[in-house]
From TrEMBL:
Residues 29-458 form the Major facilitator superfamily (MFS) profile domain. The lineage of its organism: Bacteria, Bacillati, Actinomycetota, Actinomycetes, Catenulisporales. The chain crosses the membrane at residues 28-47, 67-86, 95-114, 120-141, 153-175, 187-204, 277-303, 315-335, 342-361, 367-388, 400-423, 435-455. It is found in: Cell membrane. Its main location: membrane. It comes from Actinocrinis puniceicyclus. Pfam families: MFS_1. It is a multi-pass membrane protein. GO terms for molecular function: transmembrane transporter activity. This is MFS transporter. Keywords: Membrane, Transmembrane, Transmembrane helix, Transport. GO terms for cellular component: plasma membrane.
């Protein structure tokens, strides 16, 4: 009698993924996801460069111009919630291709807007796609990368963000200054070209396979097995044999968790993983308030006070984002070596100190000191948020990972909205010092959150398989 082959459990497939060397196919995945993240950043930075000529073209008031940003951040909030749930239900690959098409298309259409109402609607729709990317990209990169380099790879993807900011500043300089386009057309070129450039990434994203871990979590183990075997086939023969040993067929896995509706997924997160969800929400709230708040203060209060001319502003932000690249690089070097908890706590403390340095520089009235302080503070802030995302992403189970990230990002966007709208007004009424102190306080919330997580015995995930961080629930529990 021939014995029916048993199906390898998801943990065996995960072990095989973790034993792979970081090779060419991992690099393609990293670059394709990172390039999409770069254009997400490009979208965000595009607004700050285009809002001036756009507002002038439509004769918009200060409130109407600020409302464009509020609509944008609101779209990201809802997009993160929806995208997180959808990627858990329909898969990583399908969603990261769809969202790229979505926000690129609506960005191009923004450049064709006939009036301000159309700008609001199209910016909101584009933001839905960008918000969804937060959950989809973070989930995908965590599930593909070997455990020993998972943190470094995730930070590398996040570090495409300052690259997008630099690209946006350069494009704005070329279109708004070098070619001296009229305000009636300059902002349109920014959006149209930005959306078309993002579509270039689609070719590479379509070549990325579905996450084997997501497939296995939904019972599609044979498909997952084929993808893992394909990744193994790219390795030297002795590496393939070593990796294949970990896929020895074991006991049949428990039935996969059901495909959960959004409300059910949220209830399971709150009921089964409240501490991890609270950590993700607190870290994202702190960094979003701090990061967006600083940029709001710079544009409304600081740059005018230190008399940095309009023509110099793109170069000011380019220098600041070079600092951000350095901060992200430092985080990538530390996250796997020093561990998640120590790296995140240190980076959030450094971000708080960077805000203090920026406050001092602002008080001097020196453009040179403000520029130097912005380079340092932006580098520390980038180290903080790029290390935070991988840290809470890997703590959620595969079938809830997108939803967990989405909830955390949504809470963070509330901080971004409040910080962007509150801090400039607070600085106008009470002075910049009060606003800076509030930003420092939010960065320290992040320090407290990761410290409390560690004190309560929260797991250190550096170098550990994802499957060991959140055991697969038993069938009865999954359906509870």
């Amino acid at each position: 009698m021939t014995e029916t082959p048993r199906t390898p459990p998801p943990s065996a497939l995960g072990a095989r993924l973790d034993r792979l060397r970081f090779g060419r196919r991992h690099t393609v995945i990293l670059l394709a996801l990172g390039a999409g993240w770069m254009f997400d950043s490009f979208e965000v930075q595009l607004f700050s460069n285009a809002i001036g000529p756009l507002g002038d073209h439509f004769h918009a008031s200060v409130f109407e111009r600020d409302a464009v940003l509020a609509v944008w951040l609101g779209g990201i909030l809802l997009g993160a919630l929806a995208g997180g749930a959808l990627t858990d239900r329909f898969g990583r690959r399908r969603m990261f291709v769809l969202t790229l098409l979505w926000y690129a298309g609506f960005t191009v259409l923004t450049g064709l807007s006939p009036d301000l109402a159309a700008v609001y609607a199209l910016r909101f729709l584009a933001a839905l796609g960008v918000g969804a990317e937060y959950a989809i990209v973070n989930a995908a990169i965590a599930e593909f990368m070997p455990a020993r380099v998972r943190g470094k790879a995730a930070v590398a993807v996040m570090n495409f963000w300052p690259l997008g900011a630099i690209l946006a500043a350069l494009l704005a300089y070329l279109l708004l200054d070098t070619f001296a386009l009229a305000s009636a057309t300059s902002w349109r070129y920014l959006f149209v070209l930005g959306g078309l450039l993002a579509l270039v990434v689609l070719y590479y994203r379509r070549r990325i396979p579905e996450s084997p871990r997501w497939l296995a979590s939904h019972g599609r183990v044979e498909e997952a097995e084929r993808i893992v075997a394909d990744l193994e086939s790219a390795e030297p023969a002795h590496e393939v044999r070593q990796s294949a040993v970990t896929g020895v067929l074991g006991p049949a896995p428990a039935p996969p968790p059901p495909q959960l509706p959004v409300t059910t997924a949220l209830r399971e997160l709150v009921r089964r993983h409240p501490g991890r969800l609270a950590l993700g929400a607190a870290l994202d709230l702190a960094e979003a308030f701090g990061y967006y708040g600083i940029f709001a203060l710079l544009s409304v209060v600081v740059l005018t006070k230190v008399h940095i001319r309009t023509a110099q502003i793109p170069f000011f932000y380019i220098l600041g984002n070079l600092g951000a690249l350095a901060g992200g690089l430092i985080a990538s070097l530390l996250l796997d070596r020093a561990g998640r908890r120590g790296t995140v706590a240190g980076a959030y403390l450094a971000a708080a100190a960077g805000v203090g340095l920026l406050a001092w520089a602002t008080a001097t009235g020196s453009a040179a000191w403000v520029t130097a302080a912005f380079v340092v503070s932006n580098g520390a802030a980038t180290a903080a948020w790029t290390s935070a995302y991988p840290t809470f992403t890997e703590l959620f189970p595969t079938h809830l990972r997108g939803a967990g990230i989405g909830v955390s990002v949504s809470v963070g966007r509330i901080g971004a909205i409040v910080g962007t709208l509150l801090l400039p007004d607070l600085a106008t009424r009470l002075g910049a010092t009060a606003s800076y102190l509030l930003v420092i306080g939010f960065w320290l919330i992040g320090v407290g959150a990761i410290g409390l997580y560690a004190l309560r015995g929260g797991q250190e995930a550096a170098g550990r398989p994802l499957e060991s961080l959140v055991p697969v629930p038993a069938p009865a529990a999954a359906g509870a």
